[in-house]
Amino acid sequence: MDLPEHVAATGLLHPERPVVVLLSGGRDSVCLLDVAVVLCGADAVRALHVNYGLRDDADGDEAHCAALCDALGVPLAIERATRPDDAPGNLQAWARDVRYGAAARLAAAAGPAARVAAAHTATDQAETILYRLAASPGRRALLGMPARSGRLVRPLLAVTREETAAWCRERGLAWRDDATNDSDRYARGRVRGSLVPALRAVHPAAERNVLRTAELLRDEAEVLDVVVDTALAGRDVIAVEHLAALPRALARLVVRRLAEDATGALCARAPGRLDEILALGEGALDLGAGARAVVDGGVLRCERTPPLPAHRT
What we know:
four-stranded antiparallel beta sheet, 14% strand, Rossmann fold, alpha/beta, Uridine Diphospho-n-acetylenolpyruvylglucosamine Reductase, domain 3, 49% helix
């Protein structure tokens, strides 16, 4: 594979267009940084490394990234972060928020056209789909990570981990291995170390088949979005009687659309409340993820769940 040509064909990296590359020091991010320099020129590329100080060799990773960027002529921003004791969510979610937040600030400073590039590969995509399929029901679990979401782009989504390693070897680029990636401490490590090999034993093309399924479903999702648009006819409400007359699959999609438009966030549980909405009569029903359904005069709308009243002592 001619990797730069393949990545250029995605249209996600453009010559002289500013890009901030998320650089961990692993093979995939090292590969992405080098390809970005080849395609965009070093003057258009910035790198970001986040040192969370969570591993004994974290400072070694930082030093490696600094040496690599110096060799490639790429400015490197280093973010050092310590997780607060009261930080919500799990460690990985916190680390992701820190990383993307810092990258967004760098990209904003580089101008409105600047993008943030993450080094997720086809291998990561397959693992993500398998994890989501196990952890959350619904068609959306099978769609995987998008190639582009706002400023964020993933130029290597059709490239395997083996291919990024081959590129690095060909170019004489060293990388750092993070042993926690293969640990079974986290769910992603268990998918990588146990589930994926088991699927390969069933069929050697298992990962490619998972990825192809996701591609087909993303195409079909565009059709479903048009059908939902038609059902709502440009409105942000729908008569409950009309909702009940729709095919159940479409009715669930309508409920999800209304909930997610109201909150601006994913509301995975909302479609599962369809029967309760239809039986509600008049009143409000919590849909989870900060959304609630309100039926008034036989018309359904969704809104943000109001905050709980302040506790009085």
